[in-house]
Amino acid sequence: MELALATLADKKLYKYRAIDPHHPEYVSRILTHNELYFPSPREFNDPWESKPQFVAGPVHDPQYRQRLVTVITSMMRNDPGIDREAVRRRAEQHTQEEVEALVTAFIPEYWEALERYRVCSFCSSSRIALLWSHYANAHEGFCLEFDASTDIFGGAFRVAYQDEYPSLDIADDDDWALLKASILTKSSDWSYEEEYRLVSAEPGNDELLSVSNKKFVFPPNLLTAVIFGAQMEAKDRKQLIKWADQGETSPTYREATLSATKYELEIRPIEGDVEEEIREEEEQGEKEAITGRQIFWAVVAFLILVYFLSS
Description:
Blueprint: H1 4-7, E1 12-17, H2 25-32, E2 35-37, E3 53-55, H3 62-75, H4 84-91, H5 96-114, E4 117-123, H6 129-135, E5 142-147, E6 157-158, E7 160-162, E8 167-169, H7 175-183, E9 185-187, E10 195-201, E11 211-212, E12 215-217, E13 223-228, H8 234-246, E14 252-258, E15 265-269, H9 274-310
Parallel strand pairs: 3-8, 7-9, 13-14
Antiparallel strand pairs: 1-5, 2-12, 4-10, 5-13, 6-10, 11-12, 14-15
Helix pairs in contact: 2-8, 3-4
């Protein structure tokens, strides 16, 4: 399987997001706590995902039958109440119809096992217009840039796209094949996303990213940039910068703009110190608020004086 570290020329991954006014914490915690959400596969937005076709090969083939017996007995290795030798002898006598029935019986166990997986999606570019439309609230959202030159984000798997469901033989005891068919293969209709996925599990092990309650805390220095959407409002830009200032991340800020000659986006740096400009605006706003209060109380004092002088 292809990893981001080996396939991305610029060693960057991108994630498109938008601020949800009802749940701003979905975004704020990325910047204030360097925290990413890893949903389970059942939360994916594509109803065709994670549905490989499980098949049974020809059981009359001695080599295939031996592979099948090995897989069936290994599935029972953690159940001390089962006589593995009896299972082996029974598996050696299975007919083709019985093996195909096993395939059907295996599907609920597959879904139960799949529930342990945790997945976070990224893509290889910050200039995909459809992703700005679909995931960044019609260009009113933003895009996060992550450093994929290390084993963390560089360990994201490249998603494969094809027209037919992936097929898995029940006699294949290959965890990587199962992972690719279940989580890393999508319909060709989605190929424009150029997707990469970080994969973990709960409970996990030392070989996986440490995900807890579907959340992964990444090293803050790996968030390298925040790219504002072409139609993002100034107040939302300011809010993102404020959240970043509250946390340990130190991203640079860029903005997406519409090309003047083509149907495409251009990503350009924002001139000046945007954080300093925001602080200056806030200080000016505080001064104006103070001046406004002073004028108000001066008017009140004047009206009181007029009242007493006229009475």
